[in-house]
Amino acid sequence: MKILITGGAGFIGKYLANRLCSEHEVTIIDNFYRKNNIELNNQVKIVEQDITKDIEELISQNDVIYHLAAISQVMTSIEDPELTYKVNIEATKNIVAACAKHNKKLIFASSREVYGTQRELPVKLNAELNPENPYAASKLAGEALIKSYGKSYNLSYNIVRMSNVYGIGDVERVIPMFIDIFKKNKEVELYGSEKIIDFVYIKDIVNAFVKLKDKEGLTLNLGSGVKTTLVELANLIKELTNSNSNINISSERQGEVGKFQADISETKTKLDWKPKTTLREGLKQMINS
Protein backbone atom coordinates (compact mmCIF):
# COMPACT_ATOMS: atom_id res chain seq x y z
CA MET A 1 0.00 0.00 0.00
CA LYS A 2 1.21 3.52 -0.82
CA ILE A 3 0.63 6.02 1.98
CA LEU A 4 1.03 9.80 2.02
CA ILE A 5 1.27 11.71 5.29
CA THR A 6 0.84 15.48 5.17
CA GLY A 7 2.68 17.07 8.06
CA GLY A 8 4.75 13.90 8.14
CA ALA A 9 7.80 15.62 9.64
CA GLY A 10 5.76 16.69 12.65
CA PHE A 11 5.66 14.95 16.01
CA ILE A 12 2.78 12.59 15.23
CA GLY A 13 3.69 12.34 11.55
CA LYS A 14 7.20 10.99 12.12
CA TYR A 15 6.03 8.38 14.61
CA LEU A 16 3.32 7.28 12.17
CA ALA A 17 5.67 7.21 9.16
CA ASN A 18 8.26 5.18 11.08
CA ARG A 19 5.59 2.70 12.15
CA LEU A 20 4.06 2.27 8.68
CA CYS A 21 7.21 2.17 6.53
CA SER A 22 8.15 -1.40 7.46
CA GLU A 23 5.08 -2.73 5.62
CA HIS A 24 4.09 0.08 3.24
CA GLU A 25 5.58 2.60 0.83
CA VAL A 26 5.40 5.83 2.81
CA THR A 27 5.86 9.40 1.58
CA ILE A 28 5.67 12.49 3.76
CA ILE A 29 5.08 16.07 2.69
CA ASP A 30 6.02 18.87 5.07
CA ASN A 31 7.37 22.43 5.07
CA PHE A 32 9.31 21.67 8.29
CA TYR A 33 7.53 24.56 10.02
CA ARG A 34 7.81 23.01 13.49
CA LYS A 35 10.74 21.13 15.01
CA ASN A 36 11.01 17.95 17.08
CA ASN A 37 13.71 15.51 18.17
CA ILE A 38 12.56 12.40 16.30
CA GLU A 39 14.63 10.64 13.66
CA LEU A 40 12.81 9.68 10.46
CA ASN A 41 13.42 6.21 9.02
CA ASN A 42 15.47 6.44 5.81
CA GLN A 43 12.92 4.25 4.02
CA VAL A 44 10.43 7.15 4.13
CA LYS A 45 10.33 9.39 1.06
CA ILE A 46 10.39 13.12 1.81
CA VAL A 47 8.74 15.89 -0.19
CA GLU A 48 9.65 19.28 1.25
CA GLN A 49 6.72 21.45 0.20
CA ASP A 50 3.90 23.53 1.65
CA ILE A 51 0.44 21.94 1.44
CA THR A 52 -0.96 25.27 0.23
CA LYS A 53 0.72 24.44 -3.11
CA ASP A 54 -0.87 22.06 -5.63
CA ILE A 55 -0.30 18.48 -4.42
CA GLU A 56 -3.02 16.73 -6.43
CA GLU A 57 -0.52 14.67 -8.44
CA LEU A 58 1.16 13.47 -5.26
CA ILE A 59 -2.20 12.49 -3.82
CA SER A 60 -3.10 10.60 -7.00
CA GLN A 61 0.03 8.45 -6.61
CA ASN A 62 -0.97 7.12 -3.17
CA ASP A 63 -3.75 4.93 -1.75
CA VAL A 64 -4.30 6.38 1.72
CA ILE A 65 -3.79 10.00 2.73
CA TYR A 66 -3.22 10.88 6.40
CA HIS A 67 -3.88 14.62 6.62
CA LEU A 68 -2.03 15.82 9.72
CA ALA A 69 -0.53 19.08 8.43
CA ALA A 70 -1.98 22.17 10.11
CA ILE A 71 -1.36 25.29 12.08
CA SER A 72 -1.98 23.37 15.28
CA GLN A 73 -1.35 25.76 18.17
CA VAL A 74 -4.30 27.65 19.61
CA MET A 75 -2.32 30.76 20.50
CA THR A 76 -0.74 30.87 17.02
CA SER A 77 -4.21 30.72 15.48
CA ILE A 78 -5.35 33.63 17.64
CA GLU A 79 -2.29 35.67 16.66
CA ASP A 80 -2.55 34.82 12.94
CA PRO A 81 -6.06 33.65 12.00
CA GLU A 82 -5.54 34.37 8.28
CA LEU A 83 -2.61 31.94 8.05
CA THR A 84 -4.60 29.40 10.06
CA TYR A 85 -7.51 29.58 7.64
CA LYS A 86 -5.22 29.41 4.59
CA VAL A 87 -3.47 26.26 5.80
CA ASN A 88 -6.23 24.53 7.75
CA ILE A 89 -9.23 25.30 5.53
CA GLU A 90 -8.15 26.27 2.00
CA ALA A 91 -5.40 23.65 1.72
CA THR A 92 -7.64 21.03 3.34
CA LYS A 93 -10.38 21.82 0.80
CA ASN A 94 -7.93 21.10 -2.04
CA ILE A 95 -6.73 17.86 -0.43
CA VAL A 96 -10.30 16.70 0.15
CA ALA A 97 -11.26 17.46 -3.45
CA ALA A 98 -8.19 15.62 -4.81
CA CYS A 99 -8.91 12.57 -2.64
CA ALA A 100 -12.50 12.46 -3.89
CA LYS A 101 -11.45 12.95 -7.54
CA HIS A 102 -8.86 10.16 -7.44
CA ASN A 103 -10.80 7.84 -5.12
CA LYS A 104 -8.30 7.92 -2.24
CA LYS A 105 -9.04 7.25 1.42
CA LEU A 106 -8.57 10.29 3.66
CA ILE A 107 -7.83 10.11 7.38
CA PHE A 108 -8.19 13.53 8.98
CA ALA A 109 -6.61 14.67 12.24
CA SER A 110 -9.20 16.91 13.87
CA SER A 111 -9.09 18.13 17.46
CA ARG A 112 -10.91 18.06 20.77
CA GLU A 113 -10.93 21.86 20.37
CA VAL A 114 -14.04 21.59 18.16
CA TYR A 115 -16.10 20.87 21.31
CA GLY A 116 -15.01 24.00 23.17
CA THR A 117 -15.55 23.93 26.94
CA GLN A 118 -18.28 21.46 27.85
CA ARG A 119 -20.28 21.27 31.08
CA GLU A 120 -20.33 17.49 31.24
CA LEU A 121 -17.28 15.24 31.21
CA PRO A 122 -16.34 12.96 29.56
CA VAL A 123 -17.30 14.60 26.27
CA LYS A 124 -19.37 12.36 24.01
CA LEU A 125 -19.23 12.38 20.21
CA ASN A 126 -22.76 13.83 20.00
CA ALA A 127 -21.92 16.79 22.25
CA GLU A 128 -22.62 20.24 20.82
CA LEU A 129 -19.69 21.55 18.78
CA ASN A 130 -18.65 24.96 20.07
CA PRO A 131 -15.27 26.18 18.75
CA GLU A 132 -13.74 28.95 20.86
CA ASN A 133 -10.71 29.94 18.75
CA PRO A 134 -9.65 30.12 15.07
CA TYR A 135 -7.84 26.78 15.25
CA ALA A 136 -10.97 25.02 16.50
CA ALA A 137 -13.09 26.73 13.84
CA SER A 138 -10.68 25.65 11.12
CA LYS A 139 -10.76 22.03 12.25
CA LEU A 140 -14.55 22.02 12.35
CA ALA A 141 -14.59 23.49 8.84
CA GLY A 142 -12.28 20.68 7.72
CA GLU A 143 -14.64 18.09 9.19
CA ALA A 144 -17.61 19.69 7.42
CA LEU A 145 -15.79 19.70 4.07
CA ILE A 146 -14.86 16.03 4.42
CA LYS A 147 -18.35 14.91 5.41
CA SER A 148 -19.96 16.91 2.60
CA TYR A 149 -17.60 15.33 0.04
CA GLY A 150 -18.41 11.95 1.53
CA LYS A 151 -22.09 12.49 0.80
CA SER A 152 -21.74 14.32 -2.53
CA TYR A 153 -18.78 12.49 -4.09
CA ASN A 154 -18.48 9.23 -2.11
CA LEU A 155 -15.20 10.26 -0.48
CA SER A 156 -13.87 7.49 1.76
CA TYR A 157 -12.77 9.02 5.07
CA ASN A 158 -12.23 8.75 8.80
CA ILE A 159 -12.04 11.68 11.25
CA VAL A 160 -10.42 11.62 14.69
CA ARG A 161 -10.79 14.36 17.30
CA MET A 162 -7.54 14.11 19.20
CA SER A 163 -6.92 15.24 22.73
CA ASN A 164 -3.45 16.38 23.91
CA VAL A 165 -0.79 14.05 22.51
CA TYR A 166 2.59 13.74 24.24
CA GLY A 167 5.69 11.56 24.09
CA ILE A 168 9.44 11.28 23.63
CA GLY A 169 10.88 13.71 21.10
CA ASP A 170 8.15 16.34 21.33
CA VAL A 171 9.01 19.98 21.95
CA GLU A 172 7.16 23.27 22.49
CA ARG A 173 4.05 21.74 24.06
CA VAL A 174 3.04 21.83 27.70
CA ILE A 175 4.54 18.54 28.88
CA PRO A 176 8.02 18.84 27.32
CA MET A 177 8.12 22.49 28.39
CA PHE A 178 7.18 21.58 31.98
CA ILE A 179 9.76 18.78 32.10
CA ASP A 180 12.48 21.14 30.94
CA ILE A 181 11.52 23.85 33.44
CA PHE A 182 11.20 21.45 36.39
CA LYS A 183 14.56 19.82 35.58
CA LYS A 184 16.16 23.25 35.72
CA ASN A 185 14.40 24.04 39.03
CA LYS A 186 12.91 27.20 37.56
CA GLU A 187 9.53 28.66 38.53
CA VAL A 188 6.54 27.14 36.70
CA GLU A 189 3.63 29.28 35.55
CA LEU A 190 0.22 27.60 35.25
CA TYR A 191 -2.58 29.31 33.35
CA GLY A 192 -5.69 28.14 35.18
CA SER A 193 -5.72 26.03 38.36
CA GLU A 194 -8.93 24.21 37.37
CA LYS A 195 -7.93 23.52 33.77
CA ILE A 196 -8.62 19.85 32.90
CA ILE A 197 -6.80 18.07 30.07
CA ASP A 198 -6.91 14.58 28.56
CA PHE A 199 -3.32 13.49 27.78
CA VAL A 200 -2.75 10.53 25.45
CA TYR A 201 0.59 8.89 24.69
CA ILE A 202 1.97 9.05 21.15
CA LYS A 203 2.31 5.29 20.65
CA ASP A 204 -1.35 4.81 21.58
CA ILE A 205 -2.31 7.45 19.02
CA VAL A 206 -0.21 5.76 16.32
CA ASN A 207 -1.81 2.37 17.07
CA ALA A 208 -5.21 3.94 16.45
CA PHE A 209 -4.09 5.67 13.24
CA VAL A 210 -2.74 2.38 11.85
CA LYS A 211 -6.10 0.71 12.44
CA LEU A 212 -7.97 3.60 10.77
CA LYS A 213 -6.57 2.84 7.29
CA ASP A 214 -8.71 -0.31 7.27
CA LYS A 215 -11.89 1.46 8.44
CA GLU A 216 -14.31 3.83 6.73
CA GLY A 217 -16.85 6.52 7.62
CA LEU A 218 -15.88 6.92 11.27
CA THR A 219 -15.75 10.05 13.40
CA LEU A 220 -14.13 9.23 16.74
CA ASN A 221 -12.63 10.76 19.86
CA LEU A 222 -9.00 9.83 20.36
CA GLY A 223 -7.72 10.34 23.89
CA SER A 224 -6.88 8.47 27.05
CA GLY A 225 -10.32 8.96 28.57
CA VAL A 226 -8.61 10.15 31.76
CA LYS A 227 -8.87 13.71 33.06
CA THR A 228 -5.89 15.47 34.61
CA THR A 229 -5.83 18.99 36.01
CA LEU A 230 -2.94 21.23 35.10
CA VAL A 231 -1.99 21.36 38.79
CA GLU A 232 -1.96 17.55 39.00
CA LEU A 233 0.25 17.40 35.91
CA ALA A 234 2.68 19.94 37.32
CA ASN A 235 2.89 18.19 40.68
CA LEU A 236 3.44 14.81 39.02
CA ILE A 237 6.27 16.10 36.85
CA LYS A 238 7.76 17.88 39.89
CA GLU A 239 7.71 14.58 41.79
CA LEU A 240 9.21 12.54 38.94
CA THR A 241 12.00 15.06 38.31
CA ASN A 242 12.75 15.59 42.02
CA SER A 243 12.45 19.30 41.34
CA ASN A 244 12.60 22.23 43.73
CA SER A 245 10.59 24.47 41.42
CA ASN A 246 7.83 26.69 42.74
CA ILE A 247 4.44 26.48 41.00
CA ASN A 248 2.65 29.78 40.35
CA ILE A 249 -0.98 29.91 39.20
CA SER A 250 -2.29 32.63 36.87
CA SER A 251 -5.68 33.14 35.24
CA GLU A 252 -6.60 31.15 32.13
CA ARG A 253 -5.64 32.57 28.75
CA GLN A 254 -8.45 33.75 26.49
CA GLY A 255 -9.44 31.34 23.74
CA GLU A 256 -8.18 28.18 25.43
CA VAL A 257 -10.59 25.37 26.30
CA GLY A 258 -10.99 25.16 30.09
CA LYS A 259 -11.65 21.45 30.49
CA PHE A 260 -11.74 18.30 28.38
CA GLN A 261 -11.93 14.56 28.89
CA ALA A 262 -12.72 12.34 25.94
CA ASP A 263 -15.44 9.69 25.95
CA ILE A 264 -13.61 6.94 24.04
CA SER A 265 -16.21 4.18 24.42
CA GLU A 266 -17.08 4.16 20.69
CA THR A 267 -13.41 4.32 19.75
CA LYS A 268 -12.65 1.24 21.83
CA THR A 269 -15.50 -0.68 20.21
CA LYS A 270 -15.21 0.41 16.58
CA LEU A 271 -11.40 0.32 16.38
CA ASP A 272 -10.80 -2.57 18.80
CA TRP A 273 -8.36 -0.19 20.47
CA LYS A 274 -7.59 1.15 23.90
CA PRO A 275 -4.79 3.34 25.30
CA LYS A 276 -2.12 1.32 27.11
CA THR A 277 0.25 3.93 28.57
CA THR A 278 -0.67 5.77 31.77
CA LEU A 279 0.34 9.40 32.20
CA ARG A 280 2.81 8.49 34.95
CA GLU A 281 4.47 5.84 32.80
CA GLY A 282 4.56 8.08 29.73
CA LEU A 283 6.12 10.92 31.71
CA LYS A 284 8.74 8.56 33.16
CA GLN A 285 9.72 7.50 29.63
CA MET A 286 10.06 11.13 28.54
CA ILE A 287 12.03 12.20 31.61
CA ASN A 288 14.43 9.25 31.33
CA SER A 289 14.93 9.49 27.56
Characteristic key phrases:
UDP-galactose 4-epimerase, domain 1; globular; 10 helices; 19% strand; two-stranded parallel ribbon; alpha/beta; Rossmann fold; 38% helix; 289 residues; 2 domains
Question: Can you walk through the features of this model?
Answer:
The chain is an alpha/beta fold and 289 residues long. The chain has 2 domains: 186 residues, NAD(P)-binding Rossmann-like Domain (Rossmann fold); 95 residues, UDP-galactose 4-epimerase, domain 1, CATH 3.90.25. It is built from 10 helices and 13 strands. The strands form 4 sheets. Strands 3-2-1-4-5-6-11 form a 7-stranded parallel β-sheet, with helices on both faces. It is globular, with a radius of gyration of 18 Å. The protein starts with a strand and ends with a helix. The mean pLDDT is 95.
Topology readout:
Blueprint: E1 2-6, H1 11-20, E2 25-30, E3 45-48, H2 56-60, E4 64-67, H3 74-79, H4 81-101, E5 105-111, H5 134-153, E6 157-162, E7 164-166, H6 174-183, E8 188-191, E9 196-197, E10 199-201, H7 202-212, E11 218-222, E12 228-229, H8 230-240, E13 247-250, H9 265-271, H10 279-288
Parallel strand pairs: 1-2, 1-4, 2-3, 4-5, 5-6, 6-11, 7-10, 8-13
Antiparallel strand pairs: 9-12
Helix pairs in contact: 1-7, 4-5, 6-8
